[in-house]
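Milestone M4 deliverable, item 7.
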Amino acid sequence: MPHDAETTERVVAQNRRARHDYFILETVEAGLVLTGTEVKSLRQGKASLTEAYAGVQDGEAFIYQMHIPPYEQGNRWNPDPVRRRKLLLHRSEIASLAKAVAQKGQTIVPLKLYFSRGHAKLLLGVAKGKKTLDKRHAIAERDAKREIDRARRGAERGR
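Output delivered:
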């Protein structure tokens, strides 16, 4: 029986703020190097991507400031909740991320942390920061779309 990626994906955490603060230019899926208690904590749905960011150092990709709280039933060797964690990517993907970060104004932000076929995955986005004007424009567009939809639904009810 073939596996459908949509049915086997379980989202643990999302970074909704990233899409508001950045233009997402491209996305990359990365695996994570985690300890056993971190995986158990993630399976309970506990994680935060709000302060997290990714970077490339010495040819390896890492995620910084991603908060995974200690597992309650864990032992005294629970790792630091915000420690630097290695990302599992192909060498070519790491090279393209490093090239993107080298360009002025681009950064790597985590968008979503999820389990896919039992493995913890992190969706990374190569992003360019939005200016305040762009954010206001996006909010105005969203509000206008909401008003149009509301008017359309009202017209359909009136028929």
